[in-house]
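Q: Fold this one first, please.
A: Sequence and structure below.
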Amino acid sequence: MEDVTVIIQGRLLPECYEFWIKTYKDCPVILSTWVDTEIDFKNLPENFTVLLSPYPFDFGAQNLNLQLISTLTALKRVQTKYVIKLRGDEYYSNLQYIRNSILVEPHKIHTSPIFFRAWEYAEYHISDHIIAGTLENMLVMFGETKYNFDTGKVNISKWKVDGKFHKWVTTHAPEERITKSYLNAKEPFRFEKVDGRIIMMEHFNILDIELLHPYKIKANLFRKEWTSGFIPERNFSISKIEQLFADDPYKRNDEK
């Protein structure tokens, strides 16, 4: 795993930090958090780097700007070809599986199925709980999103009722703004001109959450967490990128 840097960004939970320092020993790890962290880093392993940033004036809707700043601060220090970005209040195992997924499809961004929304529910809504890929693509994704956040671009989305367009609204979902910023940068002549599901399939992959167990998943917006048994479809998420085209995207194959 020497060719992969793990970025752990945002607010750090002590139990997650303890998990990481015991588990992530075979790759560079960057902890990118905030100046008011209460974590004691005195026993930090040699493969770990800590970056402390001051808070911005504008956190952004659902703390989007916090994610962008802490991620970009870390990305600028990465010296490996590949990157796996995680959240500071979660943890996952078997990062080798994520690395292997990147090696198989290096042109894609690899994400978790955690709240990766169906197209019928929300267009251009990947998951931001895990985001992994080449350093080049990760810099494009977060650099473009930060630029668009600062300039107020790519911040509208379709509000749907029963799968049909209702009206345009200002989106507060960081995942949508990240997705649209990235695809607009990668596909400027196709984005919003061809079926967005086709472009998403070309540029994204969804990881198998069960291969990343043991894990700790948090949904702060819904005040829920999982340490096992996260089933995407029962949480309005899709497990495979092909479900963007499904007529009943939240129906599992083992359900009648």
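Q: Good. Now the second chain.
A: Here it is, same layout.
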Amino acid sequence: MVNYSAGLDATFGALADGTRRAILARLSESDSSVSELARPFSMSLPAVLKHVDVLERAGLVEARKDGRVRRCRLAAAPLAEASAWIARYRKFWEDRFRALEKYLAETAKEDSSWPIHHRKHRSFVSRTASRPRGRGSSGPGRSRSS
């Protein structure tokens, strides 16, 4: 079994929630207090604090107390690790799509009717007739009275 880093797991777990992604987007513009971060959301301040705590445990946010105010700032290092992981798989899929494109181009040369959407389609009609319903039939399915 492949063992991924706990940091990467925590990063993707934190990014899985839209509220936390919105908080990170806000922090990418400037540092903010938790109260400022909570303003656009229709949730309580303790609920926003829980989201900030998840981001902090994932290493995406650094929070410090300034008197009674908790100030937050974005810590981008875990995002760089996640981006590198995604880039590796982006390359994999781009290579696969290029190979598929090459295969389809070669197939098109061999079969002039390819791709299929260029062919003239005929309507396919079933040549088998459906059986008529019996007398007094209530239609498909069972009725409640039986």
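Q: Anything worth noting on the second one?
A: Residues 6-76 form a domain with the Arc Repressor Mutant, subunit A fold (CATH 1.10.10.10).
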